[in-house]
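STRUCTURE:
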């Protein structure tokens, strides 16, 4: 046999090893590894549906500029404005209590005489004016009396939780719309009225913001920030910062629980595993990943869930 023939015969044997090597490499990649979780998944928003809702709100507001709301609905709107003005100034005297009672009475009258459609239109009008005043505030940094009358303590709460720095709000207009509608429903005492409920995609938009901008609960945030101002060592500062981080992650984990009850398409157990891990609750994290893997043995999150599960178990055993 010629030497050239030996070389020709050796080539197929080398080529035959390539699929084997690729299979071994892919198999190694598919094996579970101990990997700490990253960010939680965000809900998927139907932007077309969200745009339709926003356009409908804006159309209602514009129509009300040419077709005035009925007198009782306008009276309800004025009662809301008076109450918000007291709330914005943190003025909780007897007049504040009277203002709260006035809302209940005026809204009841408007519901009886004008119906729920007028209340939906009233909210749309005040929402549109609120957005205009927020844009003005972001341009000028000045809180107008009109913004107080429309927003009440909204900006104060945004600043307390860290979503307002200077005159820059962390919420974009899409999120502001949803947040304001929910606040308006609560102020008007109409949270349970079906026609005023925000829809699923609006809630997905709001929870996308929550999960992307978590904060420690307000009482804990205040306590930790006060302690940081008097901390005497770097070790004390580091411990307080870690406490704030853990409280923030627990707040986010609680939001994941609430989102799971709202959105059946959200990968709740998988997200809860990540949230509990980041909050330092490693056994709870492992249990959540167990739950996800039991229900989803295959799928886009499966390999990552296995990797995160191993990391959670390792951390739990190290405690």
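SEQUENCE:
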């Amino acid at each position: 046999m010629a030497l050239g023939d030996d070389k020709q015969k050796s080539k197929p044997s080398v080529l035959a090893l390539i699929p084997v090597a690729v299979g071994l490499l892919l198999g190694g990649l598919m094996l579970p590894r101990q990997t700490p979780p990253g960010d939680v998944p965000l809900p998927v928003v139907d932007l077309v549906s969200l745009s339709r809702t926003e356009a409908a709100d804006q159309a209602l507001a514009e129509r009300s500029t040419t077709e005035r709301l009925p007198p009782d609905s306008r009276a309800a709107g004025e009662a809301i404005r008076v109450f918000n003005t007291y709330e914005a100034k943190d003025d909780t005297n007897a007049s504040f209590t009277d203002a709260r009672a006035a809302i209940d009475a005026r809204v009841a009258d408007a519901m009886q005489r004008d119906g729920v459609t007028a209340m939906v239109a009233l909210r749309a009008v005040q929402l549109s004016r609120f957005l205009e005043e927020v844009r003005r505030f972001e341009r000028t940094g000045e809180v107008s009396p009109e913004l107080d009358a429309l927003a009440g303590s909204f900006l104060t709460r945004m600043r307390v939780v860290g979503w307002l720095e200077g005159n820059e709000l962390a919420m974009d207009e899409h999120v502001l719309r949803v947040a304001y509608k929910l606040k308006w429903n609560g102020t008007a005492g109409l949270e349970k009225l079906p026609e005023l409920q925000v829809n699923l995609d609006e809630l997905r938009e709001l929870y996308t913001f929550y999960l992307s901008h978590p904060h420690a609960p307000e009482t804990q945030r205040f306590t930790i920030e006060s302690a940081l101002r008097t901390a005497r060592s770097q070790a004390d500062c580091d411990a307080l910062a870690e406490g704030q981080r853990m409280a923030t992650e627990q707040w986010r984990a609680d939001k994941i629980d609430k989102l799971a009850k709202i959105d059946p398409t959200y990968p709740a157990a998988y997200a809860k595993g990540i949230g509990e891990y980041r909050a330092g609750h490693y056994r709870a994290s492992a249990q959540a990943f167990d739950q996800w893997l039991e229900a989803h043995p295959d799928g886009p999150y499966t390999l990552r869930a296995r990797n995160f599960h191993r990391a959670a178990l390792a951390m739990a055993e190290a405690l």
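REMARK: Residues 234-262 form the longest helix (29 residues).
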